[in-house]
Structure to design on (526 residues):
């Protein structure tokens, strides 16, 4: 019997999102070996994808995964003869987890996921490795899915993960919330979640990833409710997600903010995001995610593009620059500057970034728009062409092709 | 867990540091070792400069040859190392971060876990 189709996959994605983190954490605790725990859950996931697509999802997906992962862990440990005793111990533990999930443990589940996020996003790991590990071990994507997301061959990605896990085990990186430098380490974690969202943001096909990122941000605010930047990130992602339905045109091309149908925005989500921002503001510790969220909230509350409070946005960008001096922030500030002061001063700002952003398609696209507004059509076309040469995402390419009329 | 801290420097840049500044930093370094004494094992040393190094490597005919100079031609050199025993990587990195010479150009601390041979 074959039961394929999106429904099974939705159940799978949902179960995986909610169960994989706790299962890896529980096995990690049991075996004391992150590598074995993580690989065992990965093995279980691969089995789950096959079995659930074939037979439909089981009534209790979490228990199914726990049991399968435990068996795989025992298999793995048995293969390593020196650890025979540990394998026996794992095999002997009772499988209470296979019963209905105990909702009273939700709190510790959240804590464990947060702990794993901190471990997987440790600054001693390369950024690509942090992303890959987080998606696999916490969000529960398979190696193949992660590889597809980052457009790298599966073998390359598998290698990246193996190397990262070896480093975790060899260097004594702990799967725990650190005692010191929490804001700094949290920033690394939030960055990975933000990058995850961006990987799923512009591409209609990988929107599941965007939802995973929102979910990870929720997990962080639940586990660390006193960290304003965690709330800031959740607010930011919720706001970006609230525009998801208006972001793509009928031909799959990206629709820019100015041209989006605001009636299609998710207004309850916008209200929710505003509450998250209020929660963050209580701590009076602004940071780059809160400020970006505040900028997004300004856009979200404007009834039309023309009625946007650009002066407020420009002020927020000035504050944001104190936390994040990256050229991309300066580029975005220039867009607000154009709305407040006109395209000429904005173009001067944008041109000053040429050395740093020449390889960035949105630098050329922003320049093209400013040049067009200054009536320099030929230069605008050249800049749009350059942007199209550099753009990789289909939805962005479609928009640029529309602009070029090709 | 045990880690090695390798203190690297740039001898060419160090040569430009005035003598009294050097003495001052040495004072800070002694103080630093004292403050963190519980983390350090007995193993460790400050090394004389790379101009004193002699390297033995396999020659073209497969037998060892002795050559003047350090094993690497990089500008960075290892100025010394310590073996530390601390809770985890975060503790090791915190220690490395507080290395008093880090304010000078070209200074870095590499942190590496050591291989611990298990007897079971």
């Amino acid at each position: 019997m074959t039961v394929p189709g999106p429904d099974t996959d939705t159940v799978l994605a949902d179960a995986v999102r909610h169960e994989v983190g706790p299962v890896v954490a529980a096995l990690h605790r049991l075996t004391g070996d992150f590598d074995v725990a993580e690989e065992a859950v990965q093995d279980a996931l691969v089995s789950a994808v096959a079995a659930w697509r074939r037979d439909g999802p089981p009534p209790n997906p979490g228990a199914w995964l726990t049991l399968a992962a435990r068996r795989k862990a025992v298999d793995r440990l048995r293969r390593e003869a020196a650890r025979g005793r540990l394998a026996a111990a794992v095999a002997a533990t009772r499988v209470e987890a296979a019963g209905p999930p105990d909702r009273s443990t939700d709190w510790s589940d959240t804590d464990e996921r947060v702990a794993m996020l901190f471990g997987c996003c440790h600054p001693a790991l390369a950024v690509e490795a942090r992303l890959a590990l987080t998606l696999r071990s916490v969000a529960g994507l398979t190696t193949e899915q992660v590889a597809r997301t980052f457009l790298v061959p599966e073998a390359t990605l598998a290698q990246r993960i193996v190397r990262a896990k070896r480093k975790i085990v060899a260097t004594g990186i702990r799967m725990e919330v650190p005692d010191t430098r929490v804001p700094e380490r949290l920033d690394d974690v939030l960055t990975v979640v933000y990058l995850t969202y961006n990987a799923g943001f512009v591409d209609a096909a990988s929107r599941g990833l965007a939802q995973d990122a929102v979910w990870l941000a929720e997990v962080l605010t639940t586990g660390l409710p006193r960290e304003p930047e965690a709330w800031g990130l959740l607010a930011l992602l919720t706001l970006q997600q609230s525009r998801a339905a208006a972001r793509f045109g009928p031909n799959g091309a990206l629709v820019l903010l100015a041209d989006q149908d605001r009636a299609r925005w998710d207004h309850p989500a916008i209200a929710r995001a505003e509450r998250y921002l209020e929660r963050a503001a209580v701590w009076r510790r602004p940071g780059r995610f809160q400020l970006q969220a505040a900028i997004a909230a300004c856009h979200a509350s404007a009834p039309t593009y023309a009625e946007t409070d650009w002066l407020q946005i420009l002020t927020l960008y000035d504050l944001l620059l104190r936390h994040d001096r990256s050229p991309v922030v300066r580029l975005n500030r220039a867009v607000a500057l154009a709305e407040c002061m006109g395209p000429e001063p904005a173009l001067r700002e944008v041109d000053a970034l040429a050395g740093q952003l020449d390889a960035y398609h949105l630098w050329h696209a922003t320049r093209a728009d400013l040049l067009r507004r200054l009536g320099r059509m030929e230069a605008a076309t050249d800049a749009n062409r350059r942007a199209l040469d550099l753009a990789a995402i289909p939805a962005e390419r479609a928009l640029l092709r529309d602009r070029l009329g090709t | 867990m045990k880690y090695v801290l390798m203190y690297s420097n740039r001898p060419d840049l160090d040569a430009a540091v005035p003598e009294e500044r050097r003495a001052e930093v040495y004072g800070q370094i002694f103080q630093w070792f004292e403050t963190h004494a519980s983390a350090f094992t007995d193993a460790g040393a400050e090394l004389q400069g790379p101009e004193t190094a002699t390297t033995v490597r396999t020659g073209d005919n497969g037998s060892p040859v002795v050559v003047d100079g350090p094993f690497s031609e990089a500008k960075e050199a290892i100025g010394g190392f310590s073996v530390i025993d601390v809770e985890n990587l975060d503790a090791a990195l915190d220690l490395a971060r507080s290395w008093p010479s880090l304010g000078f150009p070209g200074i870095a601390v590499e942190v590496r876990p050591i291989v611990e041979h298990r007897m079971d």
Observations:
- Residues 6-31 of chain A form the longest helix (26 residues).
- The interface with chain B takes residues 82, 122, 124, 170-174, 178-181 of chain A (CB under 8 Å).
- Confidence is low (pLDDT under 50) at residues 1-6, 95-107 of chain A.
- Chain A is about 70% helix and 0% strand.
